[in-house]
Give the backbone structure.
Amino acid sequence: MGQQAKPALTTCDEETKPLILFEDVSKSFAGARVAVQNIDLKVAPREFVTLVGPSGCGKSTLLNMVAGIFAPTSGRVLYNGTPVGALNRKVGYMTQADHLLPWRTVSGNIAVPLEIAGLPRRQIKARIDELLALVGLDQFAASYPSQLSGGMRKRVALARLIAGDPDTLLMDEPFGALDAQLRLLLQIELRGLCRRLGKTVLFVTHDIDEAVALADRCAVFTGRPGTIAEYFMIDLPVERNLKSLRFDSKYQKECARLWRRLTPEIARVGTEDEPALLPFAQEATQ
Ligand SMILES: Nc1ncnc2c1ncn2[C@@H]1O[C@H](COP(=O)(O)OP(=O)(O)O)[C@@H](O)[C@H]1O
Ligand SMILES: [Mg+2]
């Protein structure tokens, strides 16, 4: 691949010490093709960055490298100025599946990271009460996951995620399987919570509307091997009302801008990397 101009880093300026820094990072897996290539990404403390792009372009791979699950093949991933080595304990990770333990109550599930950290019992109890209040589940401390709605389960997972007070939340399509209304509610709660607690977030999504609504900045990936094609500064206020956002012309403009940027990826369908469209769909995209 030719050397292309790298997109400008806009929110993490020269004076700001980045919390997460990818320096020309590439990652290949044994026997597989290159997953990501020449990634430069600088995330400021408390910044909310969404990652959007076609499936298989390496978004999860980037999160895994911040978490220290695997190292880059070339380049460096720094966290707070230090190369990420073994498991990065300053981050919390959340995926689409909530991985709640069915035999533990809500409190018991939230306690897991606190128990692993070896906190004294009394401290665990106090922290759980605080977290239950934060996610509005005080009344459900003794309930089991099977007794909860999908949204409540997500809130438990969120409380467990922030229990150990990580600086950074790595979120890999966490709301992917939810219906639109519930997704909106959780987006409101997540952005509010992160602002309030001063969390830094890397949030992967397929959903363009979500990528705009949540983000201070959005990184747009190209297809495999994944590179960041462009950074979009999201031109919306930091304190925003997600509930009325869809009627906001600025928001609609931002979504349209992102759509236009991602649409060329649809043209890649039918190439070596992606299965061909059905014939009628091919006609419709011409
Ligand atoms: N642990 C792994 N072992 C081998 N190949 C992997 C592994 N993780 C990801 N890959 C490959 O890296 C590429 C990018 O994957 P991934 O980061 O999951 O993409 P995305 O999250 O954007 O869908 C894919 O081709 C995938 O098969
Ligand atoms: Mg993924």
Q: What stands out?
A: The pocket of adenosine-5'-diphosphate (ligand 1) is lined by residues 29, 32, 35, 55-61 (CB under 6 Å).
